[in-house]
Amino acid sequence: STLSKINSKLIFVSISPFGRTGPHSQMHGGELVAWASSGYMYTTGWKWQKPTHPWGRQASHAAGLFAVTGAMAAIFERRRTGLGKQVDVSMQKSVASTVEQNVPFYIGDGVVSGRRENDHVNGFGGSKLIQCKDGWVHMNIGWRNGHNEIVEWMKEEGMAEDLTDEKWHDSKFHRENFPHVLETITKWSKLKTKAEFFHQGQERGLECGPVNSVAEALNDPQMQSREFWVEVKHPEISDGEKFTYPGAPCILSETPWAARRRAPLIGEDNDNVFQDLLGLSSKEQDELKKKNII
């Protein structure tokens, strides 16, 4: 409210563990707390182990995405009304909004989804991670309208065994015997590399994707051709060392994206934001610092 009195057009975006209102609004937390309290951690990991946190800072990424979305909406609203807005983002709610079928399964059927060993929420669905000769591939191994492209591929190579039988078209039989499907397909998939699955699958019009390591992603010819990885200089380091960063996920035809500099250090751009953009004087900025507003 203090900042909005100075500039009524100000859009203020806050990201907190539980949001700025409600009984938990004053509680501390972060990435781990947001993931755990959202209901998502209960479904993450292997059945025989305790719930786990996925790799990376996915709760922070989800909250950041909704923060940007909220800020953009506030900008459009400001164009209409001339007034700024406060965007209040809860990390807990951000993660909870991504739990896919877990909520309708519980609301509709009373089923509490648990850990599924990295499988899809629908354990008998066709989308699976399958082990191959040099790692893992992701592909759809399910039947659709009595037809299975993967089984047809296996049949051509003499590896389909009994998966071509009509009994697999029955959904009840399919569910009850799904481990046999996985076992049979895995015996065949272990004879092929990730590259063979990807290229041969593409030729067949199948969705087969290799599970790449970070090293493989850095050397991926597709991302290299689109100049995704970029070198960014860090002037605060004595020799100005460069580091490899992810670049633009999209290419704009008229306004090319470029990494002009590394991310600002904490408080590095404060004078530019509060004085040049918001029009505060040095004295006014100091007063806000004394009040712990900035």
Secondary structure layout:
Blueprint lengths: L1 H5 L5 E5 L14 H7 L20 H24 L4 E5 H6 L5 H8 L17 E6 L2 E6 L8 H8 L14 H6 L1 H12 L4 H10 L4 E3 L3 H5 L2 H5 L3 E5 L8 E5 L23 H8 L4 H9 L4
Parallel strand pairs: 1-2
Antiparallel strand pairs: 3-4, 4-5, 6-7
In short:
The protein has helices spanning 2-6, 31-37, 58-81, 91-96, 102-109, 149-156, 171-176, 178-189, 194-203, 214-218, 221-225, 270-277, 282-290, and strands at 12-16, 86-90, 127-132, 135-140, 208-210, 229-233, 242-246. The chain is of the alpha+beta class and 294 residues long.
What would you note in describing this structure?
By secondary structure, the protein is an alpha+beta fold. It has 4 domains: 2-114, Rossmann fold; 127-211, formyl-coa transferase, domain 3 (2-Layer Sandwich), CATH 3.30.1540; 213-263, no CATH class; 264-294, no CATH class. It contains 13 helices and 7 strands. It has helices at residues 2-6, 31-37, 58-81, 91-96, 102-109, 149-156, 171-176, 178-189, 194-203, 214-218, 221-225, 270-277, 282-290; strands spanning 12-16, 86-90, 127-132, 135-140, 208-210, 229-233, 242-246. The chain has a 3-stranded antiparallel sheet, covered by helices on one side. The longest helix is centred in the first third of the chain and has 24 residues, at 58-81. The two termini are 13 Å apart. This is CoA transferase.
